[in-house]
Structures are given as structure tokens and as C-alpha cells.
Amino acid sequence: MRRAWIASLTLSALLFVPIGRAEPVLVLQSDFGTLDGAVASMKGVAVGVSPNIHIYDVTHHIEPYNIWQGALRLVQTAEYWPVGTVFVSVVDPGVGTERKSIVLKTKSGHYFVTPDNGTLTFVAPRLGIAAVREIDEAVNRRKNSEKSFTFHGRDVYAYTAARLAAGVITFEQVGRALPPQVVTIPHEQARFADGVVYGTVQSHDGNYGNIWTNVDRVVFGKLGATIGDTLNIRILKGDVEVLNLAVPYVTTFGEVDLAKPLLYLNSLDSVSLAINQGNFAEHYAVGSGPAWSIQIQR
């Protein structure tokens, strides 16, 4: 009798579980580091809105004030998170100034809560802009924080993002609608012209020193190169040539000898340069960012 009663109770409970309702997911990124309590404060604010929020991190070790790097880390990870995920990205050297605080809703169904300062340079075109709203701080701001002007990551962004993720507010309740555009950092767009592929050296991949560019498979494909071809690459900083090198186009690192350079398509399906078990960036003294460009030809 007891077993039947438990089974009946369990079934009754299941009938009241909202089918298909996803748990709220919040993903944080910043240049705060983890040596003090800044990140923990943001997480505390989010849990205070709803203890059911699942909180994760992209990274909190963005180089201080490096908006470009923050933009890259978002595009590297965002599309692999479930639809409805809310991201907070705070690399905000202009905190407290007139830059807008916004929420971007992408066509992929993700949300990005951030200052509109270039952080969305790459994720907006990759995932598509569905709508943009400016955060109404009269409503969407942590209580009694109105006199604080230097920690919007805690008082505005984490708070608003948690309310949005938990369903306390809708996207429309974030604030007024803005034109469907975001601030972007100027850089060399990936393109093909007159037998040459042009692009930007976006970043190094951290531990390994591989060079990642914004040249995707589609643009690179216009070059007509096939696996095994030797390609000529030029890397410039501004108008100054830093590197001119012939490299083989291969599928993976082990297809060249140790300590030899190569060109391949990385995990984001974009052109990258590496040295097999070496550090391309250090070996060739190549940097990254909007001032660094690449040219590729057969």
C-alpha cells in the first residue's frame, strides 16, 4: 500500500512540472580577475534574484580594459550554449560615463547584457541582431545602489541579467527599444579581392600561441586552395610588414614536421596559423588586435 501511495504521489508531482521549461542559465565574463570579491558579488546578486539560476563563467581574466579580447571570447563560446542563455560581459573602462547599457537579443535566441562599447563586435554579426534594448536603470538596478557609479557589473548588469534569465522581467521590460545595431571596433573585414584574401589577426589562442583570424571558410574558399598547397602569407601591423612566409595548408598540426609552421582552419572554422608543438606568435613576434592584418595568396 505504501509503495502505491508513493508512486501515486510521484506521478502527481510530475504532472505539475512545467514540461519543456528550461532552467535559467547565466554566463559571466569580465576583466575583474578572481583575486577579490567582485565576481562573487555579481553571482550573489544573481542568486538573490533567483536561487534556481545556474551560473557559469566564460573567463574573468580578460586583459584589463581590453574590449577587443572580451568581444573575441564571447564569439568563441556563445553559440555553444542553449537557446535562452543570458550572458553578462563586463569589460567597461567607460563605466559611469555616457556609454549605453544594453541587452542584445540575437536571432539565435541568446541574450547579451553589456555596455555598448564594442564588446558585441563579433557576436552580433555571427549570431544576428534580433533586437536591442537600453537598460532602464530606474527599474532594472539593484536596490539602494543608485549612488554607486563604478560597479555596474554588479548593480545593473548582473541584476538585470538575472531578472531576465529567471523570467522576473521580459525582454521588452528591459527598457526602451534601440535601433538594431551595436557599437563595433573598426578592423579589416574578411574579404577576397584580386586573388588575395584579406583579414584581421584577431587573437592568439592562449597557451599555444596559435594565430586566429577572422577569415572564415567561405571567404578563404574563394582563394581556391586545396589541402597540401603552399600559400604565401603577409602579416602587417598598420602599414608595416611584420612577416612574409610560405606555409602549407593542412588539416591538422601533425601533418607537418615538428617546429614547422602551418595554416589550418580552427575550431571556429576560420583560418589560423600555428607551429607544430611550437608557439607561432612568439616565434614570429606577431601580435593581434584591430591594428594587425593578414593577406593570403597562392
- Biggest sheet architecture: 8 strands, antiparallel
Give the CA-based shape: elongated
What fraction of the residues are assigned to beta strands by DSSP?
Answer: 25-35%
Q: Which secondary-structure class do the elements indicate? A: alpha+beta
Number of helices: 7
Keywords, please?
single chain; 298 residues; alpha+beta; eight-stranded antiparallel sheet; 15 strands
Quick description:
With 298 residues, the chain is α+β, with helices and mostly antiparallel strands. It has helices at 2-15, 38-49, 67-77, 123-127, 152-165, 217-221, 280-283, and strands spanning 25-30, 54-59, 86-90, 101-106, 111-115, 129-134, 177-178, 191-193, 196-204, 211-216, 230-237, 240-248, 261-265, 270-275, 292-297.
Can you walk me through this structure?
With 298 residues, the chain is α+β, with helices and mostly antiparallel strands. The chain is 22% helix and 30% strand. It contains seven helices and 15 strands. It has helices spanning 2-15, 38-49, 67-77, 123-127, 152-165, 217-221, 280-283, and strands spanning 25-30, 54-59, 86-90, 101-106, 111-115, 129-134, 177-178, 191-193, 196-204, 211-216, 230-237, 240-248, 261-265, 270-275, 292-297. The strands form two sheets. Strands 8, 9, 10, 11, 12, 13, 14 and 15 form an eight-stranded antiparallel sheet that branches. Helix 2 packs parallel to helix 5. The longest helix has 14 residues, at 2-15. It is elongated and about 60 Å long. The relative contact order is 0.12.
Protein topology:
Layout: H1 2-15, E1 25-30, H2 38-49, E2 54-59, H3 67-77, E3 86-90, E4 101-106, E5 111-115, H4 123-127, E6 129-134, H5 152-165, E7 177-178, E8 191-193, E9 196-204, E10 211-216, H6 217-221, E11 230-237, E12 240-248, E13 261-265, E14 270-275, H7 280-283, E15 292-297
Parallel strand pairs: 1-2, 1-3, 3-5
Antiparallel strand pairs: 4-5, 4-6, 6-7, 8-9, 9-10, 9-15, 10-14, 11-12, 11-15, 13-14
